[in-house]
Design brief:
- By secondary structure, this protein is α/β, with parallel strands linked by helices.
- The protein has 10 helices and 7 strands.
- Helix 1 packs across helix 10.
- It starts with a strand and ends with a helix.
- Bound molecules: adenosine-5'-diphosphate and magnesium ion.
- The site of adenosine-5'-diphosphate has 18 residues, from helix 1 and helix 8.
């Protein structure tokens, strides 16, 4: 059964795109048929997995494009994504992404939707198209407040629209075990969310920041780096979590 996963957090720079690209790469290596939908006008996932922005977005009928990696397809973002967003308002417009993806769902095992850092109609469309939410979280105090807002927002959507989306998991990113505040946030998150927190944490690792400048996933660029090893383990957890 296909699982559609929105990767969202309204905060920017927390590792959403890094997680989408690298988890997608490792899931494809594990033999899954993976589609990445770039739902962020910044198009960062598109620059790693496609040749940058496309002519049209998923909302304008862009079909999946095979990436250079076997088993990994991508629907890139496009310049019109920002303008498109205005046409997405209203009850029906919020289901645009779900409708646009419907013809492709059966062709994939896992669909990962990268989201922009806000709670605009683009992430709303992603949450209403998804069965699961993956929430990358940087280990810092304000991140927890942002997360509470996103989870409350998801609950509202579920009530309003009978959306099916459930929290799959929280992935702690840019983790620094030597930092007391980071450890405290991790302890709090694990106490509150239990098994819905990924056991794997993603360390701060310059290789993860460098890989995109070579247009590569960490699995292509430096699989044996701490970040590469961590994303491989996180991808295994993702696959297990989606199969449960
Ligand atoms: P978002 O999509 O949430 O805005 P990104 O994935 O683009 O966040 O990450 C923000 C920046 O931090 C990027 O420059 C990225 O390369 C870098 N980055 C992401 N994760 C890590 C990490 N674990 N260690 C070091 N740098 C990271
Ligand atoms: Mg991003």
């Amino acid at each position: 059964m296909t699982r559609v996963v929105a990767v969202s957090n309204q905060k920017g720079g927390v590792g959403k795109t890094t997680s989408v690209v690298n988890l997608a790469g490792y899931c494809a290596l594990a033999g899954k048929r993976v589609l990445v939908v770039d739902n962020d006008p910044q198009g960062n996932a598109s620059s790693v997995l496609a040749q940058g922005l496309g002519d049209k977005s998923v909302y304008s009928g862009q079909a999946p494009i095979q990436s250079r990696m076997s088993g990994l397809a991508v629907i890139p973002a496009s310049r019109d994504l920002n303008e498109r967003e205005r046409s997405l308002s209203g009850g029906d417009g919020r289901l645009s992404l779900r409708r646009a993806l419907a013809p492709y769902v059966a062709s994939f095992d896992i669909i990962l939707i990268d989201c922009p850092p806000n709670l605009s109609l683009l992430p709303i469309n992603a949450l209403l198209a998804a069965d699961r939410l993956l929430l990358p979280l940087q280990c810092e105090y304000f991140a927890m407040e942002g997360m509470a807002q996103l989870l409350a927002f998801m609950e509202d959507l579920r009530d309003e629209q009978t959306a099916a989306v459930e929290l799959l998991g929280i992935l702690l990113t840019m983790h620094d075990a030597g930092h007391p505040l980071c450890r405290q946030v991790e302890t709090d998150i694990r106490a509150h969310f239990g098994e819905r927190t990924f056991a794997t944490t993603i360390p701060r690792d310059v290789s993860l920041a460098a890989a995109p400048s070579h247009g590569q996933t960490i699995g292509e660029y430096e699989p044996l780096s701490p970040g590469g090893i961590a994303y491989l383990a996180a991808a295994k957890e993702l696959i297990d979590g989606l199969e449960r």
